[in-house]
Specification:
With 228 residues, the chain is α/β, with parallel strands linked by helices. It is built from 11 helices and 7 strands. The chain has a 5-stranded parallel beta sheet with strand order 2-1-3-6-7, with helices on both faces. The chain has a two-stranded antiparallel sheet with strand order 4-5.
């Protein structure tokens, strides 16, 4: 979603099996004086919400523990399918928060304020960076090499885009919408911003990706020689 699309309220679906949590997020959305978001669906499972209007939501707000089962593996699947996911959870261990970020989702802890929750939902919808206090703490304590983890779909979208293909052509090649391609590229920018290495231009993003070993220079150059 681009800034122009944000002229309408962001549509939100909540996946949580605790009614109190759903009502809490609903109240923050309803109390926003600018009415920048609207809740269109909620339910206790991913399947229940995506079977209805929630499948078309701009942002999915997801608890990591549903029915006594941790569903962290589904975060990457949802992000890989093109959903913008905000994890809203009590599980704020560093490893879990970093896994959520690596999967392409945003993270806000249930003990954080409604302002943070609303801000991260709106940032996710616009594919813009917003770092919650819990995310910041996990990232500062992260002793892994400072390069983002990309999903296979994000890497493929970047590679095709850097191979002189338009975003529309990338979408056709990958069998997805152009909006999803823009989302994948936006998520990579967000990941770089979160680790303190912003990439505001396509050239800067390409340089970072090659520098970090996310793409090889010969992959980009080889296609350019064959591009039509």
């Amino acid at each position: 979603m681009d800034r122009d699309a944000l002229a309408r309220p962001v549509t939100v679906a909540i996946i949580d099996d605790h009614p109190v949590a759903i009502e809490g997020v609903r109240s923050w959305i309803d109390r926003d004086p600018r009415q920048r978001a609207t809740l269109i669906a909620s339910g206790p499972s991913v399947q229940a919400v995506l079977a209805g209007p929630g499948r078309d939501a701009d942002v999915l707000v997801l608890d990591l523990e549903l029915g006594d089962e941790m569903i962290i593996d589904q975060v990457g699947e949802l992000c890989g399918s093109g959903y913008r996911v905000v994890v809203y959870s009590n599980h704020d261990e560093r490893e879990i928060v970093l896994a959520v970020i690596d999967a392409g989702a945003r993270y806000v802890a249930k003990h954080e304020s409604g302002d943070h929750c609303m801000s991260v939902i709106l940032a996710a919808a616009a594919d813009e960076p917003y770092v919650t206090p819990t995310e910041a703490g996990a990232l500062l304590a992260d002793d892994r090499p400072q390069r983002p983890h990309l999903s296979e779909q994000e890497r493929t979208a970047l590679l095709l885009w850097f191979q002189s293909m338009s975003k529309a052509s990338v979408a056709s090649r990958m069998g997805i919408s152009e909006a999803t391609v823009k989302q994948y590229i936006g998520r990579v920018r967000v990941k770089y911003t979160k680790i303190g290495r912003p990439v505001p231009t396509k050239t800067a993003l390409l340089a970072r990706a090659i520098e970090d070993g996310l793409l090889r220079a010969d992959e980009v150059g080889d296609y350019r020689s064959r591009a039509v």
